[in-house]
Amino acid sequence: MTPEMSDVTRTKHGRPVHHWRRDLVELAALFTAVAVADAVANLIGHGPDGPALLVISAIVLAATAGFHVWWARRHGHAPPAGDTGARQAAETRSAGQSGAQRPDGGADAVTGAGVLWRMRTTVQDEPGSLAVLCTALAERRVDILSLQTHPLADGTVDEFLLRGPGELPAAEITRAVALAGGGSTWIERADAHDLVDAPTRVLGLAARTALDAAELPLALRQLLGRCTIRSLPGAPVGGGRGPEPVPVEGVLEDTVLRLRAPEGGVITVERPYLPFTPTEFARARALVELDGRLGPRIPRGHDMLTLPEGKDIAVRRVDTGDLTAAREMHERCSARTLDMRYHGPARDADRYLNHLLSPRFGRTLAAQTASGRIVGLGHLLWDGDETEVALLVEDDWQRRGIGTELLRRLVALAVEAGCESVYAVTRASNTGMVAAMRGLGLPLDYQVEEGTLVITARLVATPAMTGHRTARTANASAPRPGTPD
Description:
The protein is an alpha+beta fold. It folds into four domains: 3-70, no CATH class; 115-195, Alpha-Beta Plaits (2-Layer Sandwich); 198-294, no CATH class; 302-466, Aminopeptidase (3-Layer(aba) Sandwich). It has helices at residues 3-12, 20-45, 50-74, 86-91, 129-139, 170-179, 198-211, 216-224, 278-294, 323-332, 335-342, 353-356, 402-416, 431-438, 463-466; strands at 115-123, 143-151, 156-164, 183-189, 228-232, 251-253, 256-260, 266-270, 302-306, 312-318, 362-368, 374-383, 386-393, 421-427, 444-449, 452-458. The protein has a five-stranded antiparallel β-sheet with strand order 9-10-11-12-13, sandwiched between helices. A four-stranded antiparallel β-sheet has the order 2-3-1-4, sandwiched between helices. Helix 7 (198-211) packs antiparallel against helix 8 (216-224) and helix 8 (216-224) runs antiparallel to helix 9 (278-294). It is elongated. The N and C termini lie far apart (84 Å).
């Protein structure tokens, strides 16, 4: 390695550069100057005008030193001879550093202050079409963080995750894409969760679905974005015709997906603002097929709840395997309790249980005694793109805090699932349910129609809930909540 290269390397690592040849020359010059000064002093000191010459020499030396200082300050920013490259290397910034400048003088687009966008556009399936689109984005300092392609019969849908300057509006991005040949462009703000690549996200959703059958609707919603998902049973409660049969391979109809549910019903997914692609359809169908192959399943385990009188009650997840115990609890409930719960004839109440206990339509928690008897049920129901809570507690176990505890845990599950709100439908005279909802400590909205009260709680990820997201869409097959405790 040459001395010059060694100097540059040391400068890059923050260590000083020592030029030994320059130091040797300066030392030799110092000795020479001392010798010359001694000779001049001897010559002048023995002459007739010696003192006057010494004063003049001192003035000349002072003037020379002053001129040297002025010159050094004026040209001090210029790199010294033989040191070019070392200082330049020390001042160079990486391309991704905040405040770095592009060659054209503009600010670097790759900064932490950029705005994330999700964008889809359709381009012709021709060589170079994607390159033209990427060039148009680069000219506006928009960085492409990820890209997925969805092949179509007459083109390709390209899905981008972009990061652009904060001052660049979405309309300017879509205009640039249109000029570059993109059509049917859709764009919306993204967040940090979108930075996860598609294969990783799909594998994570498959793992969640494999652990809990109730996760399937939530996994589909996270896979496909903002959409409405409904599960329709093969035979509706109370008789009547079920949904039209769907072929095994499912149906893709522009903005609607229809998939055959494993238990014989139909899962519909609607996304009016953005048509589905065959790639998305295949991913959704794969998740449903995985759910069907694994069969019924819920996470096992339970928590213990100590009542005020000292008795312990177990709280656990239940499903259709607990149908018999749930029916026995219904038989022990009074007509008034069932009427407050279902808002109608109590004789048909048990017909709802198979639907309510199915993980396909939500999650159910049960309060169970040490002998295995169920004394309370709490349901969290996926109602399209909304979420309903429903409660039923056996008469002899009411007013002990069981309903309130079940409701708190259901809301915690809703927060965990990413729901923005939950709603309960009950009678206006059901003071127990109203008190339980107020006890959540969440913002509440009330709507009363002909004696029916709809209470909507806007969810907040409070510490008390994260430990364990107004109009209502009536679901004819889903019962309504009632007396909590």
